[in-house]
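User: I'm putting together notes for a lab meeting next week and I want to include a structural view of one of the chains we've been expressing. I don't have a solved structure, so I'd like a prediction I can at least talk through. The sequence is below, exactly as it appears in our construct file.
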Amino acid sequence: MYMAEKRIEPRLMCADLVDIEWRDGRGRVQRTVANLEDISAVGACLQVENEIPLRTSIRMTVMKSEFVGEIRYCVFREYGYFLGVQFEPGVKWNSRAFKPLHLFDPRRLLEAEAPK
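Assistant: Thanks for the context. Below is the predicted structure for the 116-residue chain, given as structure tokens.
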């Protein structure tokens, strides 16, 4: 069944490596490298090797930019866990702060297919 996109901010497909850190259930700092799958002004999707619990606060760092948010979903798909991260209020991504190596706006496909 198809669900309509309910996000206010458009997601941009991307591919880049980012560092993330969070505290585990015992309060110990954990760190790993994640693959950035998509990003919007208010959140991101990351792929990691291990599950991270919902509602965990994480810090995503890339180059000199830092984004703090909370894990809203964690789903296993074939080759890893995909994390939906909602940035904290006041934390916004834009391409001037950090531009992923590969960045694509899927709305461009719709524009290309639209009758002229």
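A couple of points you could mention at the meeting. The chain has one domain: 12-93+101-113. The domain at 12-93+101-113 is CATH 2.40.10.220 (Thrombin, subunit H).

User: Perfect, that's what I needed.
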